[in-house]
Amino acid sequence: MKNHKLSFRVRYGETDQMGIVYYGNYAQYLEMGRVEWLRDLGVTYKSMEGNGIQLPVLNLQIKYIKSAKYDDLITVETILKKRPLVKIEFDYKIYNATGDLLAEANTVLAFMDKLKNKPIKCPDYILDKLNF
Known about the structure:
By secondary structure, the chain is of the alpha+beta class. The protein has helices spanning 25-41, 45-50, 124-127; strands spanning 3-9, 53-54, 57-64, 73-80, 87-96, 101-110, 112-113, 118-119.
């Protein structure tokens, strides 16, 4: 399975008045992890969309364990769960700089033909880059 790690600092605007990351921002962190996972594979969202493919999220689950705070250095680990077919599923773990697990998450996305708005199978150029 292909894993990817992305580290960044929590910005002030991502927090509430207590300096804790607002729960809705975690979905954006997961998207950042997915985008960089694909980029590391040699594929960009931009190139996929240019080829008429979209990846809408079908399901999102997040288990919040510990709070991330303003200026924390956090790491999003993105893990491909299984070989994609029409859907692609990722697991995530979010850690702080001391290695504390902050959240666990899962997303399921579908490969969609942008013009027909219909599901399609995972493109071969992505499957060819995966070591399954």
